[in-house]
Fold:
Amino acid sequence: MRHRKGVKNGGAKFLNVLQGANHADADRWYETMKHYCDPNVFPDTHFDGWSMGGQNMCDVHLVLRRLVALRHDGLLKKGIHDWMHFLGTSKLEWAVLLTDIQRAVRKYVNPNFTISFDCASPFLATANGQVYHHIDLPHNEKWCYRMSPIVDDKKYAQDTRPYGPTVVQEGFVDHFDESPISRHLTMKDICIYKPGDLNKIGKEGKTSWDSFSYALLMGHNVWMHLEAVQRANREYDNGSWPAMMWNQNGDHARFKDIVDAIFATSDRAEAEAIIEHYDRYWMDIVGTRGFKGKKAKNSHSQFNALFDVEEVNDGIDADDINLDETKLDELESQ
Structure:
């Protein structure tokens, strides 16, 4: 902050990162860090928005509480705090959930407010031999992009058949949604090495893929992930929804209507009361890395109080044949 130019002087925008392993941690982090976004405290060098990490990026209960706090602390101002980024977010339900939140904040608080999110899933999947092959958006059920281990066999090194139809024909997957990249691929474009071929370090490896095979499939996966997010939002706007977006065990309220009510009131206590009223519903909204509402606030903090954890990254078992975004959530957290 001492050395930045500031946006007014043509400098880059910087987001204030909020972390925290549970609600109490996240609250302490926010109270410690929030003044760095305050233009009254730092008139020319304040941060320009928010980046949501830790529990903040996967627990909708905490997300809504934080946004209400930001609004009433004067830290969602138009032209000053227009951006909020969610780290490591890959679930399709969250693609529409965050759209609902963005629309409500734009409607009642800041018309410039924009939410973005990122994930490494398309790249992690490819690195572990997985390819996106189907976008599945059944009404009032779980929404997901499906991925599976895909062909890696030297016997296809001279196979000129089209890639997508062939992996279905050969039984690797039962459905293959094409991307603009995959439509131009043949089997031999991915399975480069034939028996006896030496790789770039002069050895005969087990894989038939070379580095460009990975690049091509990563491109396919990235396109499929973007298409899944965009298609999910189109379906949602056309009246379909994933089960998570409807409070089926309570008053049968839609998520978008609850969020609209939270931001429609200018009274902080009333907004917070609405959030707490739906406490049980928030526990049904699964976040990235499997966190669920207050359940994560209580069990996660208690676990940390009792155990020391040493993280181990074992990667993906090659025999895991039905990897979807749930498994990738685990990988992204390691």
User: Anything to note?
Assistant: The first helix runs from residue 23 to 33. The chain has twelve helices and six strands. Residues 123-238 form one domain.
